[in-house]
Write a structure and sequence with these properties.
Shape: globular
Distance between the termini: 23 Å
Bound molecules: 2'-deoxycytidine-5'-monophosphate
CATH architecture: 3-Layer(aba) Sandwich
Strand content: 15-25%
Number of strands: 9
CATH topology: Rossmann fold
């Protein structure tokens, strides 16, 4: 398994051999629209790499929080990224995220990380480095990437682009259930506040804001089951 030359590593994924060009499936959309679940299932069905780009921003946020850095101090956050080793492994439908060798897969989903991630993700230099890393991760591998700017910035020439969306209340419900299952101490109001704050920061930032690529297929998942969304996406893919 080839590893990225950068400090970001991906391993344990099944390589799909490509003669010339890898196939990229870009899935963007706001939090709670169902991207992760759908992207994982599609990657699994097609035997593609699964790259959760939000996990990269979350990992950096976790490290900055642990070091008590000011998340708005752009230079210290981007300097921190340069000396950070983030690993993504996707195996048997499980995503394992490591930070300097430590498994942080669960920690990065906690509300205190989620709270700060949009501030970290709006830093220009952080985005530039993360974009380069994401491209390297997908190099020579058919991949499903999910995030906010995959179809617009990271892979504007992706063969397939989707924008998953859902009504705000439905997204809040989904996120609340997810956190409840993880036994996080959370209430609906906090989840709603978090989503609306992140929606706002993510979609209004200067660099690579959350936006549907002009050529992306828009899917409103509000009244659809996961299976229905997966089938809709798959129906567009010709390989
Ligand atoms: O998908 P997620 O909730 O794990 O993403 C966490 C944050 O990371 C999200 O609020 C915005 C940011 N993000 C981003 O700016 N660009 C991406 N490609 C992925 C995530």
């Amino acid at each position: 398994m080839p590893q990225s030359k950068s400090h970001l590593r991906v391993k344990s994924q099944t390589k799909t051999s490509q003669q010339n060009k890898e196939i990229i499936i870009a899935i963007d959309g706001p939090a709670g629209a169902g991207k992760s679940t759908v992207a994982k299932l599609i990657a699994q069905k097609l035997g593609f790499f699964y790259i959760d780009t939000g996990a990269l921003y979350r990992a950096l946020t976790l490290k900055a929080k642990r070091l008590n850095l000011n998340l708005k101090d752009e230079k210290s956050i981007s300097d921190l990224l340069k000396k950070t080793n983030i690993g993504l492994e996707y195996d048997k439908n499980n995503l394992r995220v490591t930070l300097d060798g430590e498994d942080i897969s669960k920690e990065i989903r906690k509300p205190y990380v989620t709270d700060g991630v949009s501030d970290v993700a709006k830093i220009k230099e952080v985005r530039e480095i993360m974009t380069t890393l994401q491209r390297k991760l997908a190099e020579n591998n058919n991949s499903v990437l999910e995030g906010r700017d995959i179809g617009t910035v990271v892979f504007p020439n992706a063969q397939y682009k989707f924008f998953l969306d859902a009504d705000f209340n439905e997204r809040v419900n989904r996120r609340f259930k997810e956190l409840e299952e993880k036994k996080e101490n959370i209430n609906m109001e906090l989840v709603a506040n978090d989503l609306s704050t992140r929606d706002k920061i993510d979609s209004t930032r200067k660099i690579a804001p959350l936006k549907k690529a002009e050529d992306a297929i828009y899917i409103d998942t509000t009244n659809l089951s996961i299976e229905e969304v997966v089938n809709k996406v798959i129906s567009w893919i010709k390989i």
